[in-house]
Write a structure and sequence with these properties.
The chain is an all-alpha fold. Helices cover 73% and strands 0% of the residues.
């Protein structure tokens, strides 16, 4: 009997390899045995008396704003334009509500448990970290969904004026729920790391406000002009352009790619990352905290390669290397972020993880995606270099075959190849330096700080030295900037000098520095591998010594006790024993 629903417990059927059977069984189990953390959070939220008043106040304010704008618009403009204005106003306000309220509600979930000294009780229930993370996520998403549902009746006011269709409103509400999913996952990832609810909420809002403004201005207002160029029926300027594009854009491959796959992936993949971060933060240090994040990285990398290469390859431009330089720059930023994430890897798997692998007979791929500094270093280095190489190869093919190229194709090929080689070489340095610092640092925070310092000095240091020496001011031109060749930003100087017939010196300096970065990175990775082996061997030696001591104690405890030896001082010869005194006479009583 389920304690949450009062219904008979779900008994799973025999195992089945069919995906439809697995999905059906999962749905049946979710209905009969819901997540206990989710049920507990819902019961606690139902006892709060202020929630209905907050929802009513927010809905009333939004309704008042919509009525005011509708009344003013009906007097100065036609009904259709007023309906469009109300549509963009409502969903803009709803977007900010979801993106700010969602992280704030989720940020107080795990951190409040730790602050209220109830987290230990949650751990003692025996629920795995994934179940706890899912329960907290579902409870926060349910709370945010109540805000959307309460405001939904106000969202149909544009129908009174016209100018929008039911499809646009429906798609806009669907994306509101998707944004709610992303915002809740973001707040939960921060909450899982914090020990105080106030600190978690403050940090979440400090990050959520600029991210929300950037997304609204960049993805809303900014991309509306690009959408207008691709589909003229979509207006340029209004921020809520995506639902309009679903209704007015013609169905094609671009429609499926840029209006379905890319938006869903842009929400689902970051939400998946935040979920894996939450699970890792809730997992003990002796457990496997790495497999989920590595799996996400292995899936995210090829998807991002395709997402950046397709626009660069399909753009009708004459300078092909410029588009691919932008695409590889985006990829390089993602790979640098991955280096910072995986710098916190443990040196090697714990004994608990090793025992679990041995008992489950884990294969080499499972072990490779498990904890371990050098395993992670190899994964990040191989996927990163392979992705940049693939993008460079596609760029060179496009530069050679594109009909839009009007300048020298050799210049286009050189630009794509130079950017790819320098980015890959500097990325190898970052991976090697991160592994080397992590193998010697006491905590992951120190390793990340040292990596950030290395990036700053290697990027800005050559330019600072050149400015102090006065080389740039005394000798303007590309040749004078060769002194800054060790900086990764030098690649843009190299690209600018491609059309110069006397740019051999600039290209040679860039090639030498790229080769140096790659060799330094490989050397640092070798040093990190040697240091990691030493640390693991020392740790195993300490464990073996401790096990030997425990075995000796157990053996000594199990041996029978030896008979105690007689004390020589108390030993007495038989002839020297004193004679026994006679017993006193007994008297009979009459």
């Amino acid at each position: 009997m389920s304690a949450q629903t009062g219904t008979p417990s779900f008994v799973p059927p025999p195992p089945s390899a069919r995906a439809i059977d697995v999905a059906r069984n999962s749905i049946r189990k979710a209905k009969s045995e819901p997540n206990p953390i989710w049920i507990r959070e819902l019961k606690q939220a139902a006892r709060l008396l202020r929630t209905p008043y907050i929802l009513m106040t927010l809905t009333g304010l939004v309704a008042w704003l919509m009525c005011a704008i509708g009344g003013i618009g009906s007097m100065v403009g036609n009904p259709a334009s007023t309906g469009v204005t109300l549509f963009h106003t409502f969903f803009s306000v709803a977007f900010f509500v979801v993106m700010l309220v969602g992280p704030a509600l989720a940020a107080n979930s795990v951190a409040s448990e730790r602050e209220g000294r109830t987290w230990e009780a949650v751990v003692l229930t025996g629920l795995p970290p994934k179940a706890v993370a899912k329960g907290k996520f579902m409870s926060a998403l349910t709370a945010v969904s109540m805000y959307i549902v309460m405001m939904a009746p106000v969202g149909v006011l544009p129908f009174l004026f016209g100018g929008v269709t039911a499809t646009e409103v429906f798609v806009a509400f669907v994306f509101l729920f998707l944004f709610a999913t992303l915002s809740v996952a973001f707040g939960l990832a921060i909450s899982s790391k914090m020990a105080s609810g106030r600190t978690a909420i403050a940090l979440t809002l400090l990050l959520a406000v600029p991210i929300t403004l950037t997304a609204y201005l960049g993805l809303g207002l900014g991309l509306s002009f690009a959408a207008h160029e691709a589909w003229p029926a979509v207006l340029a300027g209004p921020p809520v352009w995506l639902p309009t594009a679903y209704e007015r854009a013609p169905f094609s491959l671009e429609y499926v790619t840029f209006l379905v796959i890319v938006p869903v992936a842009a929400v689902a993949l970051p939400a998946w990352f935040f979920y894996e971060v939450t699970v890792a933060n809730l997992t003990s240090w002796s457990d496997d905290r790495s497999t989920g994040l590595k799996r996400w990285f292995a899936v995210m990398t090829p998807i991002l390669v395709v997402a950046t290469v397709v626009p660069a390859a399909s753009a009708p431009v004459s300078e092909v290397y410029v588009g691919f330089a932008i695409a590889m720059s985006v990829m390089f930023l993602f790979l640098t972020f991955a280096v910072f994430v995986f710098v916190g890897e443990p040196i090697g798997p714990s004994r608990r993880v090793l025992v679990h692998w041995d008992r489950s007979k884990a294969k080499w791929l499972t072990r490779f995606f498990g904890p371990g500094l050098m395993r992670t270093t190899v994964l990040v280095a191989v996927l990163g270099v392979a992705s940049l190489a693939a993008m460079g190869a596609v760029g060179m093919v496009v530069a050679w075959l594109s009909p839009f190229v009007t300048s020298s194709r050799n210049v286009q090929l050189t630009g794509v190849a130079a950017f790819m080689l320098y980015a890959a070489a500097y990325f190898l340095f970052l991976v090697g330096f991160g592994a080397w610092v992590r193998a010697r640092a006491s905590t992951s925070g120190v390793a990340r700080l040292m990596l950030l310092v290395a990036i700053f000095f290697s990027s800005a240091g050559p330019w600072i030295i050149a400015a102090i020496a006065g080389v740039i001011a005394d000798h303007p031109g590309a040749d004078a900037l060769v002194v800054a060749a060790p900086s990764p930003f030098y690649i843009f100087v190299l690209l600018g000098a491609l059309n110069d017939p006397n740019s051999e010196f600039v290209l040679a300096a860039g090639a030498i520095c790229a080769f140096a970065w790659a060799m330094i990175g490989i050397g640092l990775m070798a040093a990190a591998a040697s240091k990691s082996k030493t640390i693991i061997a020392r740790h195993e030696g300490i464990l073996a010594q401790a096990e030997q001591l425990f075995a000796q104690e157990d053996a000594a405890r199990n041996q029978p006790p030896e008979p105690a030896a007689a004390d020589p001082a108390e030993a007495v010869e038989p002839g020297d024993q004193p004679a026994a005194e006679p017993a006193p006479p007994t008297q009979r009583t009459p």
